[in-house]
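dude i think i finally got it to work??
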Amino acid sequence: MNIEGPLLGQGSVCETILRALPEWFGIEEATAQYIRDVDHLPTFVAWLDGRAVGFMTVKQHFPQSAELYVLGVLPEMHNRGIGRALLARVEAYLREQGVEYLQVKTLSASHPDEGYAKTRVFYEAVGFRPLEEFPTLWDEANPCLLMVKAVDGRP
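look at this
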């Protein structure tokens, strides 16, 4: 596996992965916005045998903080270390930029979605911790959980 990044203009590369994940990216308007945004934000792409199998896109909000804005790994490639490898590259890049904290937003555990339960397990396994739930940030049917992680070596 090879990871490239940070890259711009990766919307079309990432679109294939997003569309392979309808359980997570099933709202067309939101998916289309992610694809547009990926073209303008630093993106890291994992390649295997010439095929994009995963990506992570970051958005830096302040000099000391950034967000995992959108990410995905092809379903058949889950549990193979691709997400962890991408995150390691993203964190190294963010440390070089002086970023101290990384956040990610995901569906809260107050929503009984099995796919997102696995997503939260992944985030916790790589060091993210729940910070706050926003019951109506996206809408009442999709409560948002904000998770954070120190990326500069702080506990």
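The longest strand covers residues 51-62.
im so relieved honestly
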